[in-house]
Design brief:
The complex is a heterodimer.
Chain A: H1 8-36, H2 46-55, H3 57-91, H4 93-108, H5 111-122, H6 126-150, H7 154-162, H8 167-205, H9 214-223, H10 227-259
Helix pairs in contact in A: 2-10, 3-4, 3-6, 3-8, 3-9, 3-10, 5-6, 5-8, 6-8, 8-9, 8-10, 9-10
Chain B: E1 9-17, E2 23-32, E3 37-41, H1 48-56, E4 63-67, E5 78-81, H2 93-104, H3 109-122, H4 139-151, E6 157-161, H5 169-185, E7 189-193, H6 197-203, E8 206-211, E9 214-220, H7 235-252
Parallel strand pairs in B: 3-7, 3-8, 5-6, 6-7
Antiparallel strand pairs in B: 1-2, 1-4, 8-9
Helix pairs in contact in B: 2-3, 2-4, 3-4, 6-7
Classes of the chains: A mainly alpha, B alpha/beta.
Chain lengths: 265, 253
Amino acid sequence: MSRTRTSPGRALLETLPALATAVAVVAVWQWAIGHWRIPPYLLPSPGQVATAAWEKRAALVQAFAVTARGAVAGLATAAVVGTALAILFSQSRMLRMAVYPYVLFLQTVPIVAIAPLLVTWSGYGERTVILVSAIIALFPILSNVTAGLLALDANHRDLFRLYRAGRVPTLLRLRLPTATGHLAQGLRISCGLAVIGTIVGEFFVGRGGDSPGLGAVMDRWLAMGKTDALIAAVLLSSLLGLAMFAAVSLLTDRLLRRYLPGTGD
Amino acid sequence: MQFAAPVPIACRQVSVRFEGGRDVLCGVDLDVPAGAAVSLVGPSGCGKTTLLRCIAGLQQPTAGSIEPGTGTVAAGAMAYVFQEPALLPWLDAVANVMLPLDLVGRGTRAERRAAATRWLGEVGFAAADLAKRPAELSGGMRMRVSLARALVTEPAILLLDEPFAALDDLLRTRLTDLLLDLHARHPRTMVLVTHNIGEAILVGDSVASIDRGRIGGTVAVDLPRPRLARTRGTPAFGRLYDAVTDLLAEAVR
């Protein structure tokens, strides 16, 4: 099946409204500062933020790289652990009934409340940051993949039963391939969460750790009252979330289109 | 590879009660001699598919017995063609047809691939499309792959659940011809569930109607084989068509 591709010109045209919104927000921001005489320590102007970003570019680029590495590692850990747990859940209804409620419970506990405990148990290091990131990114992957592994087409299930396929062939040749789309969906949801988890982890670890990710530099600049640099770091963390989402979407879309023609949206 | 020798099917007092207490089958007796074909007709919801699933071992009857039981025939000796092609979307046509051989662990990979390619040829699948995935195939081609997948294990029993219901008339006629041709060349015990009276007569040695969970009646089809779609134009076919129509009218009364 052929797929309609968006031409570069059309893609540019489609991004114009979003760009126009950004320009309007910056303009209103600049105007509001002059109109209400807002002091820079409360809200610096867009120009001051840009200047601070340029002056702190070395620290920001390094922090961006550290946070990106933590988020990717957290997402990868969540993908591996989430898929492994989902496989176990798909094989035993009893296990699913016994453990799944606690996974839901874990999801309801604020990560900010767990992070200090994790620092206590795991120490001030990148490992703890990855752990926080993985915990917050785990649930969408686990729930999506579990749903995918269980959502078999009735005819496919009958086909495998007819030829008396055991658990392992059914898992490898039917359940896992069926769940690939669900895994892709889980990864897309979780990549933003992985960035949030990494930054939360860095907030706690950064105070005593030696890896100044975006969370750590934000914490430091907050304490120093450098609001302009702080806003630059916040914008950069949003950019990281968007970049992760775009990268994961592009990768999963391509893989799905190759693996499952007619899907991949 | 050779076809497994056809085996008879014997259903004795088969009953199925669904959750909620609805009786779908109430003591069905059905005999299909080895190598013969029986068409099952009846109104929607009368239990045709349920009976076919019981024969395939995909559903356990609440009461009664079915021979051969699933444990008494080798895996792959019974094949089932679903209403939908039910192909695995991530596999190409050849891999889809190889799947039953992979699952029952028959032959080397090269032998399985050769068998799949041969059966795709038998059902008239274009050689140029062998590496295509289901999403890249037309509805008719997908059904041909589904038919080849059912036949690749050379089964003794072939069960077909309204396999051509979703196809247009021309394609349906072509695929019915193909089924007749395959049955003429490789006879096996066959049960076809269909809503199409013409198809039921052309394929079956007899047509049985299911009426309120029981066999309502049977019409023996004495048309000579090989049969073709144009057999529909003969006076004998017309008489059989009237007889099956009367049988169905009884079932829906």
